[in-house]
Amino acid sequence: MRFDHVGVATRDATALADLFGDLCDAPVAHEETFDDMRIVFLKLDGGGYFELLEPDAGGTIADYLDREGPGVHHVALTVDDLADALGRARDLGVDLVDEEPRPGAWGHDVAFCHPRSTGGVLVEFVEH
């Protein structure tokens, strides 16, 4: 496993992309609208991304922002075999949000581990 990205919930992805772009010299690498949210990926030197999540029309990120406010939403790790990573998590007693992989941003398969089992951190596994 290796670091893939940190997901940041925001109500204004454009403004935050401008700030992080200038602050971290992180250019926009990819943008899309997916699953009721606008997603902007900023490329970081040395590998990995900031993923900015802006609600488009209700949905999970809108609910998260209403409940928690803006900030870090999740940490994502690249895995070579998503089914294997989920099996290992199950074997360790980790509660899963996703029992099976599902489509994610950029066309990747993803699955999430519930934060109650991972020290309060929502962990996303990403298979490229």
What does this structure look like?
This protein is α+β, with helices and mostly antiparallel strands and about 130 residues long. The chain has one domain (about 1-125): 2,3-Dihydroxybiphenyl 1,2-Dioxygenase, domain 1 (Roll). About 25% of the residues lie in helices and about 40% in strands. The chain has three helices and eight strands. It has helices at about 15-25, 60-70, 80-90; strands at about 1-10, 30-35, 35-45, 50-55, 70-80, 100-105, 110-115, 125. An eight-stranded mixed beta sheet has the order 2-3-4-1-5-8-7-6. The protein starts with a strand and ends with a strand.
Summarize the structure.
The protein has 128 residues and is α+β, with helices and mostly antiparallel strands.
Low-confidence stretches: none
- Summed up, the helix count is 3
- Which strand order does the major sheet show? 2-3-4-1-5-8-7-6
Determine the oligomeric state from the structure. Answer: single chain
Largest sheet: 8 strands, mixed
Number of domains: 1
By CATH's scheme, which homologous superfamily applies? Answer: 2,3-Dihydroxybiphenyl 1,2-Dioxygenase, domain 1
List keywords for this structure.
2,3-Dihydroxybiphenyl 1,2-Dioxygenase, domain 1; 8-stranded mixed sheet; 3 helices; alpha+beta; 128 residues; single chain
Topology of helices and strands:
Blueprint lengths: L1 E8 L3 H12 L3 E7 L2 E7 L5 E7 L3 H10 L2 E8 L3 H10 L10 E2 L5 E5 L9 E5 L1
Parallel strand pairs: 1-4, 5-8
Antiparallel strand pairs: 1-5, 2-3, 3-4, 6-7, 7-8
